[in-house]
Specification:
The structure is a single chain. The protein is an alpha+beta fold. Helix content is about 40%, strand content about 20%. The protein has helices at about 1-15, 30-45, 60-65, 75-80, 95-105, 150-165, 185-200, 205-215, 225-230, 245-260, 305, 320-330, 355-365, 385-395, 405-410, 425-439, and strands at about 50, 60, 80-85, 90, 115-125, 135-145, 175-180, 265, 280-285, 295-300, 315-320, 345, 370, 400, 410-415, 420-425. β15 (about 410-415) and β16 (about 420-425) form a beta hairpin. α2 (about 30-45) runs antiparallel to α6 (about 150-165) and α6 packs parallel to α10. It is elongated. The N and C termini lie far apart (about 65 Å). Bound molecules: histidyl-adenosine monophosphate (HAM). Histidyl-adenosine monophosphate binds near residues 95, 96, 272, 298 and 317.
């Protein structure tokens, strides 16, 4: 009894001291890289005419069950759903598309002739088995082009995602594409598929047999090897598309060829969300292992209606932020320059500490990153020697020293830590002097 109690207490302590399984802290070693990626994403989105929006992290559960689809893994097994204090069922967003369409409808963000081109980024939540590149709280950047039904929009969306990855220097990527048809042609294909898979039922895994009637397209992307072999020989949807879907697919392929984008057709690509119509695509990385998709997207012309809105065609993509950073690290890509402290301001004696405080603040106001010893009498201040040691340890390129002499003459001693060169200047000139060097 005693032991169980102790174990429970230990478990509780561990639970308090550690982040829950599948979620992680993005610490300073990594966060500056995220800032670089998000800046690049923001610039590219703007170049393609997308406006940023910030969406809520939780929505009514129904938005996802109706939008993403009741029979998807996401809705069936992966959502973080809870009843709030007002008795409503809400869900932490597992993806952004449904919320984006909801927001566009709620705020009339696209008119009759004006496309709504919107993007967002932030955390998404799915209760999945954590592994490399797969987390329960992960981040996506997501772009949605609403109101355009033609294939040019599909090509633009695929080109936008590829351009972001080009600017980030990602290599070894592959664009895979399929058409998943529409409510006109899919039922026919569904029947062809059910007939085909039923004839191979003895080889299929339990969940595929389960899915066969409800969602036979999902059998196509089952990862179990027996099912995979059967799915490889299954009839391809693009041989069963209606005229409209077929023409759309041809024009998307022609558009990609026009822009010089290599892609591979993958008849087994159906995506894990039910809202897709026509184009579905993914961008895969050769450097990620099992979770190799850095980006997924496609067209969803009936999503707005399925959540109770009017007809509003749409096409978009979402990319896994965590995975993009992972691939960039693995490929040794540049994240630009890590923000670094430029100047350490040191007080030679206690009498100079006030002047150090004023000068440090002045540098910061001028946009020069500066540090000082922020200790005080109660917690102990650092000696001049210890301050210089801190400056060396931080690897700052400049130190500014203020002592009795400098105080008397209203000067600051500016030392270049690389060359060892030192000059004494009035505070206003000292900032300008450093600025000339660091740009
Ligand atoms: P998705 O394929 O579910 O699509 O997710 C898009 C990307 O998010 C994936 O390719 C992957 O990079 C990343 N991702 C997904 N789950 C995880 C996870 N557990 N851990 C880390 N990264 C993950 C969607 O979410 C659709 N809303 C995309 C879309 C937008 N379609 C049209 N518009």
């Amino acid at each position: 009894m005693e032991t169980t109690g102790m174990m429970e207490a230990a478990g509780a302590a561990e639970a308090q001291n550690k982040a829950p399984r599948g979620v992680r802290d993005i610490l300073p070693e990594e966060s500056w890289k995220w800032a670089y990626v998000s800046n690049t994403v923001a610039r590219t989105m703007a170049d393609f005419g997308y406006s940023e929006v910030h969406l809520p992290i939780f929505e009514h559960t129904e938005l996802f069950s109706r939008g993403v689809g009741d029979t998807t893994d996401i809705v069936e097994k992966e959502m973080y759903t809870f009843v709030d204090r007002g008795g409503r069922s809400v869900t932490l967003r597992p993806e952004a598309t449904a919320g984006m369409v909801r927001a566009a409808l709620e705020h009339s963000l696209c008119g009759q002739n004006a496309a709504g081109k919107l993007w967002c980024w932030g955390p998404m939540f799915r209760y999945e088995r954590p592994q490399k590149g797969r987390y329960r709280q992960f981040y996506q950047f997501d772009a949605e082009c609403l109101g355009l039904a033609g294939p040019v929009a599909d090509v633009e969306v695929i080109a936008l995602s590829a351009e972001i990855f080009r600017r980030l220097g990602l290599r070894n990527l592959e664009v895979v594409m399929n058409s998943v048809g529409c409510p006109n042609c899919r039922p026919r294909y569904r029947k062809v598929l059910i007939d085909y898979f039923t004839s191979k039922k003895d080889v299929l895994c339990g969940s595929c047999i389960d899915r066969l009637d409800r969602n036979p397209l999902r059998v196509l992307d089952c990862k179990v090897s027996g099912c995979g072999a059967v799915a490889d020989s299954a009839p391809a949807i693009y041989e069963h598309l209606c005229d409209e879907c077929s023409a759309h697919f041809e024009e998307v392929k022609a558009g990609l060829a026009r822009l010089g984008f290599p892609y591979k057709l993958d008849k087994r690509l159906v995506r894990g969300l039910d809202y897709y119509t026509k184009t579905a695509y993914e961008i895969l990385s050769g450097d990620l292992g099992a979770q190799n998709a850095v980006c997924g997207g496609g067209r969803y012309d009936n999503l707005a209606e399925s959540i109770g809105g009017p007809h509003l065609p749409g096409v978009g993509f979402a990319a896994g932020f965590d995975r993009v950073v992972l691939v960039m690290e693995q490929q040794g890509n540049s994240f630009g320059r890590r923000p670094q402290t430029q100047v350490y301001v040191a007080a030679q004696d206690d009498a100079a500490r006030g002047a150090v405080q004023i000068f440090t603040h002045k540098l910061r106001q001028e946009g020069i990153s500066a540090e000082q010893d922020a200790g005080d009498a109660s917690r102990g201040t650092r000696s001049f020697k210890a301050q210089m040691k801190s400056a060396n340890k931080a690897g700052v390129p400049w130190t500014c020293i203020i002592g009795g002499d400098e105080l008397a003459k209203n000067l600051v001693a500016v030392k270049n830590m690389t060359s060892g060169e030192q000059v004494s200047l009035p505070p206003e000139e000292a900032a300008a002097y450093i600025r000339r060097y660091i740009g």
